[in-house]
Design brief:
The chain is an alpha/beta fold. It has two domains: about 240 residues, Rossmann fold (3-Layer(aba) Sandwich); about 100 residues, Alpha-Beta Complex (UDP-galactose 4-epimerase, domain 1), CATH 3.90.25. The protein contains 14 helices and 13 strands. The strands form four sheets. The chain has a seven-stranded parallel beta sheet with strand order 3-2-1-4-5-7-11, with helices on both faces. It has a two-stranded parallel sheet with strand order 6-13. A two-stranded parallel ribbon has the order 8-10. Helix 2 links the parallel strand 1 and strand 2. Helix 2 crosses helix 10, helix 9 runs parallel beside helix 11 and helix 11 packs across helix 14. The protein is globular, with a radius of gyration of 21 Å. The structure holds serine. The site of serine (SER) has 10 residues, from loops.
């Protein structure tokens, strides 16, 4: 692995120093690499690289982009990092001058709660950024003559169940139901899914010189994700991880949804594992571009009961915020993940109890004991 540039190093200069002569390195690009999922993915790539190198095999360079300079812990996991906006063409051009991108994990986005405060900005970043990356991927595919594999994290926020009675009656929803989200973030996720499908199958349909399938687009609609290492910010499923981390830190927590609020969740390692499995699956086995997955779906009250099994002193209260509650009420209480199971072998690692006892609690205890 290459050394990463010192903070403050001129990006253009450090990038140039990495280009080997006139040829560009084959690379995996991760946008939003400084986020919760980005960190997990960079760690997974670093582990995979170590395994491959031990077996005498090569692994592509890992290139990260984030709005902010990555912390040293993240930078150590990748070959190059760029601080900047994914809507900034000059930044992407600079990155492309050194790297030939064969795979993209486009994680950069504003989450659902934050997006409601600045909907037009959210659209510019969430849809404009996705469009920019898809365009870049299609151009790369044309240059090196093979499809670029593109991962897009979609979300249960893509759903908009009209009311609570319908939500309860619907149970586990399929990928094609209720796709009229109530949030800008959700609308942006549906757009991203649709744009991915278009670029994968119909891009420049009328152009005589078109490439038939420039992008191999793969997407997962994630449920709420809980990590032992990080706490999310700006999302609406954040009440789960916030409740647990507050209890572990011995801090009081006011949960912003009702005790009976129910949506699906999973752990971060399961989410990262699912991305890797889907991206490694043979294209012929994939019958769709977007897949539901989930591991467990407790109500907020059931989630708290699990927290209290390990942290009985947890000072948690319920103080529903009606607006955020309405977002959670528009998300399904469960997702039907039969297609993911059938096409690429998805299966959850944990149920609620084992997620707490085997992953979350031991790791969180260790973290806050430090
Ligand atoms: N967990 C995200 C959020 O709450 C949904 O993708 O915004």
């Amino acid at each position: 692995m290459h050394a990463t540039p010192d903070p403050g190093t001129d990006l253009a200069a450090s990038t140039a120093s990495r280009s080997r002569g006139a040829s560009r390195h084959g690379a995996i690009l991760v946008t939003g690499a400084g986020g919760e999922m980005g960190h997990g993915l960079l760690e997974a790539f670093a582990a995979e690289r170590a395994r491959r190198e031990e077996a005498g095999e090569s692994f592509p360079a890992v290139v990260a982009i984030d709005l902010r300079e990555l912390p040293e812990s993240h930078r150590a996991l990748c070959d190059e990092s760029f601080a900047g906006d994914i809507c900034d063409d000059a930044l992407l051009e600079r990155m492309l001058s050194s790297f030939e991108v064969g795979e993209i994990y486009h994680l950069a986005a504003l989450l659902s709660t934050r997006s409601e405060f600045v909907p037009e900005t959210a659209h510019a970043v969430n849809v404009g950024g996705t469009l920019n990356l898809l365009r870049l991927a299609a151009a790369e595919a044309r240059t090196h003559g093979s499809a670029v594999r593109f991962f897009f994290p979609s979300s249960i926020a893509a759903y908009g169940v009209p009311d609570l009675a319908t939500k309860r009656a619907a149970g586990a929803v399929s990928e094609d139901q209720f796709l009229q989200p109530h949030t800008m973030y959700g609308a942006n996720k549906v757009s991203g899914e649709n744009l991915g499908f278009y670029y994968a199958n119909h891009y420049r349909k009328l152009a005589a010189d078109r490439m038939a399938h420039p992008i191999d687009f793969r997407s997962i609609r994630f449920p709420g994700i809980i990590s032992a290492d990080t706490v999310p910010s700006g999302g609406t499923s954040d009440y789960g991880p916030e409740m647990l981390h507050a209890a572990a830190r011995g801090e009081p927590y006011a949960c912003f949804v009702r005790p009976d609020a129910r949506i699906p969740f999973m752990t971060m390692p399961e989410a990262i594992g699912a991305i890797r499995t889907l991206m490694a699956a043979p294209a012929e086995s994939l019958g769709r571009t977007v897949y539901n997955i989930q591991s467990f779906n407790p109500s907020a009250e059931e989630f708290l009961a699990e927290v209290r099994r390990f942290f009985p002193e947890a000072e948690t209260t319920f103080e529903p915020d009606l607006a955020r509650q309405s977002i959670v009420d528009s998300w399904p209480e469960a997702c039907d993940d039969a297609a993911a199971r059938a096409d690429w072998g998805w299966a959850p690692t944990y149920d609620l109890a084992s997620a707490f006892s085997e992953y979350l609690v031991p790791r969180i205890r260790e973290r806050y004991a430090r």
